[in-house]
Specification:
alpha/beta; about 20% helix; about 30% strand; globular
């Protein structure tokens, strides 16, 4: 049976400079390499699933710039359905400005751009697609209200997975109720604080918890993908 995976997620263009070290505040230094790559958690996950043979569709948002056209061309080459990616007029695509030192240390500035405009209305417009998905995959690089709406639509129609990264505050408890698997990387897990909690944990409403919680090891790696390679993180 063919697996139909729908990803609600982000599209990011990474501008990466490589240098011997990171610059100090106000300092200009010479670098030794520069790369432009296409990533974002949503797109990374979608391309990875397509490479494994799944039928994949990305629900996302890009700006009205030249990078968006290149982005769509690469996704199509990777056999990702781009029908549900909206182009936002007069808005830039999401970007990350990254500086990487030779020792692996890095600094990153992310400008979400068009990703912030992925809306509840866009999700509702994609309702039939979401209902027919074998797996719905979401993460927190997209607006939480859109993520919540997608989970509501998909409830009872298949497996839902939420990658709880990056860490955000004030997550709507219904997200945990609706998703089947909630996963975070080990550096973002704050369960150690639970040791200080009272026995009130037993009184927590179990309906606010997902069926499975997964913690995966945070292994350093490049965050981008090209037409020839893809990673998830």
């Amino acid at each position: 049976m063919n697996t139909n995976i729908v990803v609600l997620g982000s599209c990011m263009i990474d501008f990466t400079c490589y240098a011997s070290r990171l610059p100090k505040p106000g300092e200009t230094i010479l670098g030794n390499e520069f790369k432009i790559k296409y990533g974002g958690k949503g797109a990374n996950q979608c391309v990875s699933a397509a490479k494994l043979g799944a039928t994949t569709t990305l629900i996302g948002s890009l700006g009205s710039d030249n990078y968006a056209k290149t982005y769509l061309d690469i996704l199509k080459k990777e056999n990702v359905n781009t029908t549900y990616i909206q182009i936002q007029k007069d808005k830039q695509s999401g970007i990350a400005h990254i500086t990487v030192a030779s020792n692996g240390e890095n600094s990153i500035v992310v400008v979400p751009g068009a990703n912030d405009l992925l809306s509840v209305d866009q999700v509702i417009h994609s309702a039939d697609l979401i209902k027919n998905a074998t797996v719905l995959l979401c993460q927190f690089e997209s607006p939480l209200d859109a993520t919540l709406q997608a989970l509501r639509i998909h409830k009872g129609h298949g497996l839902s997975i939420v990658n709880g990264s990056p860490v955000v505050e004030n997550i709507h408890p219904e997200i945990f109720q609706l998703c089947d698997i909630f996963c975070i990387n080990e550096t973002e897990d704050d369960d150690d604080d639970d040791d200080d909690d009272d026995d009130d944990d037993e009184d927590d409403n179990n309906e606010s918890k997902c069926k499975v919680a997964a913690i995966y090891q945070d292994i350093p790696r490049e965050r981008e993908w090209e037409s020839a390679s893809c990673v998830t993180r």
